[in-house]
Amino acid sequence: MAVSGDGTRIFGTLGAGGALDQSLDFYYDVPSQSLNAMGWISTPPMGPRAISADQTGTIFMTGWTLNRASDFVELAQFPNAVGTFSLGSNAIDTAHGTIYAQVGMSSAFQMWPPSPTPYTGPVLMVAGSDNLAVREQLKLPENLSGKSVLSSDGNTMYSVSSSGLMVMPVGQLYVTQGAKIHQVASDHASLLITSNWCNSTPQTTVFAVIDPGGAATDFSLSTNMPGVTLTPSSGTTPTVITVSVDPTAYRSQNGTTSGLILIQSGLAVNVPVPVQLLINNPQPEQRGAVFNVPGQLVSVLADPTRNRFYVLRQDNDEVLVFDGSSFNQIASLRTPNTPWSMDITFDRRYLIVGADNSQVASLYDLNTLQFVRYLPLPYGHYPRWVAASGNAILAACRVAGPVHTIDRIQMYGMGTAYPTLGPWKNDINIDTAIVSSPSGNFILGAMADGRTLLYDANQDLFVSARKGDFTALSGAIVAPADDTFIVGSNALDGSLVPLGMVSETGTTSGFAMAGGLGLATSAQSASSPGVVERVDLSLLPYLVRPTFMTEAPLLADVMTSVFTRTLAALANGNIISLSTSGFVALSSNYDVAMATPDITSVVSAADLTSPVAPGGLMTVRGTNLSLTNAASSTLPLPTALANSCLTVNGVLVPMIMISPTQINGQLPFEVSGTGTMILRTPAGVSNTFTFPIDPTAPAAFLVNVPNWNTRMPTVTHAADGELVTPSYPIHLDEWLVIYVTGMGVTSPTVASGAGSPLDPLAQPVAAPIVFLDGAQLPVEFAGLVPGEVGVYQINVQVPFKGVRTGMQIPLTITQGGYTLTLSVRVVTNN
Length: 830
Fold this sequence. Notes:
Blueprint: E1 2-3, E2 9-15, E3 22-29, E4 34-41, E5 51-53, E6 59-62, E7 65-68, E8 74-77, E9 88-93, E10 98-103, E11 123-128, E12 134-139, E13 144-150, E14 157-161, E15 164-168, E16 185-186, E17 190-194, E18 203-210, E19 218-222, E20 228-231, E21 234-236, E22 239-245, E23 256-264, E24 275-280, E25 289-292, E26 297-302, E27 308-313, E28 318-323, E29 329-334, E30 339-344, E31 350-355, E32 360-365, E33 370-376, E34 381-388, E35 393-399, E36 405-409, E37 416-417, E38 420-421, E39 424-425, E40 432-436, E41 442-447, E42 452-456, E43 461-466, E44 475-481, E45 484-487, E46 490-493, E47 498-501, E48 510-514, E49 517-522, E50 530-535, E51 547-549, E52 563-564, E53 567-569, E54 575-578, E55 582-586, E56 598-604, E57 617-623, E58 630-631, E59 645-648, E60 651-652, E61 655-658, E62 662-666, E63 673-681, E64 684-685, E65 689-693, E66 699-700, E67 702-703, E68 712-713, E69 715-717, E70 730-731, E71 735-741, E72 746-747, E73 763-764, E74 769-772, E75 775-777, E76 779-784, E77 792-797, E78 806-815, E79 818-827
Parallel strand pairs: 17-24, 44-52, 70-79
Antiparallel strand pairs: 1-2, 2-3, 3-4, 5-6, 6-7, 7-8, 9-10, 10-11, 11-12, 13-14, 14-15, 16-18, 18-22, 19-21, 19-23, 20-22, 23-24, 25-55, 26-27, 27-28, 28-29, 30-31, 31-32, 32-33, 34-35, 35-36, 36-37, 38-39, 40-41, 41-42, 42-43, 44-45, 45-46, 46-47, 48-49, 49-50, 50-51, 53-54, 54-55, 56-57, ...
């Protein structure tokens, strides 16, 4: 037994009948001296045999359930409870809106994200007193085994335990400074690193490991994700952690890879929750912007009259409300335990949420974004799926009994199960999904075992049901019109007769209508790219071309439901797809046609005619190479410009400039032989262009000179750095500096795209030989210009005799079997 904090009600629980699964809960109202009771038959048995009440006697906790005292309606229950009588306890802390509870469970309770090595010792759960959403887990030295009470100030909890009495300073959980209880946590539940297939440089983000109470607590971090470095990987709270990701480790993953950063601590009394790490690495042509929303997201719903959309977060028991233009979260609404589905009433005023571990649906005012009231279902009925028509609000219920039913939700009072579904027995599959049509005239039902049914709101009857068309059903479920329904990849007519397939890429995850056409999303796996297809429902099975998305939509989870509602088309034209990281936002014209790129030639950037060599600067020509102009002067040079990238033999090319007709960049040092070039842009992937790669191919940079009609090679006077021209010719017995590209690999090696070092200087492996009019010139230095990319210089001395003078004297550079000849003017010193 237990008494409410104000002393007005005494609550009790006891075994009833001869079976362990029978129990009786009661309370005695002191002012009225009346007794109220409710008997239960529960599976598993209602354990632990412990009971507690809040301050006013409004709610009470018994076993693994939270109940409303006025009518004994079960507001929430802990999932996976096993109902062990002598294991566990509970206490309600009204001041903090908290319930402390230990409940026997079939497996270790998993918060989100779930740990790969869950803590299996005894834990005290710190849960919300409205819905039992677990906020924290505290390690216990031994199991609790009976009654618990809180001190009058709520700071201390006294519990009967396995070996006697346990005293816990729970009030210190809420102290922000100077707490003695050591805890450890991350300030981020989830981290998203959005890279790009084109990016080869490490990507970083940060998070902090903290003690919520402000104490200095030890911790260590680990991850098994390849290419991920944590700095530092251990320390004392608070510490900022840098997460560095090598995108090349995920080059073959064109979607999002999900993993965990595990947190451990020797001092912390809580069970640390891992940090989810998401690495998104799409191809440039994949569409959509990724928004990171932590948690186990299960459903999305567009508001037809407001610029909003709603997302169910199941692990935290809440509805997240987002603005449809900025995609910012503007509110969160607490739901019953394990929210499963939601719908908007036909008058567009209220949102209704159904849940799997509460015998109530919840009602919210969409104008004020406030909770209105609970909508109770019959005892033992859990409203997984809810759908609102113009006449009735239905719930597909999981029932604590042998028969699962469709119930009618009442806006006031308790809902009722339909006696029959038209001519059919009200006996549905436990995994049954229901959705309403936009007109409010119909509600479609689909079952995992392949059955379908249809409710007509105008007749208040179930007018159609079919079985035998499918052996099983799964995937998206939507009623886009009164005469067309979608379940998985199947389109059904107004009589639920199959019409054809709406997707050729697999079972759909989401379906919505936008611009008169259907949108269907699917994916091969959670880490693969998503696919969105436009579907003309009047021309099935004709499909408008599929488009790849930046990440996969959420896929059906057999542990929850095989049916999904992951796509929403907003009134402003934006499209929201629940996805691996949270959601992907697409514009209404996401698939606007764009001309694919076409490469036509690859030449040296120095003279636009010579062949290319590793490390040299090159110019790529073609059409539709980019949607816009972009350039970069930062070092190292980027491998992505204008969301586009270029590869040669699979190696990313550092780029200087990109335009619709030309790309300038450095041919990577790593490539040789025959080059296979591919360009990836938001418009698509180019043709595969092959070209020869010479080991060395020196080419002099040509520049325009005022008053001269021809471009001249960059041969300069060493004394003043001025260009050699016919009006400022080469003199005998002087030093020259020749600037070229394409001299090949160097020693020491230099990373592609990086500026050349000053010390030591990088010199070509194949040394050049320079002749002027057949006379070999001494080469003082040949190598990369320090600080430059792909630019080489050759320092030579002109002899004081033995060289002809004239306007067209040949200057020849020979390197590794390749010869470059330039024409220069040479004069005597007189």
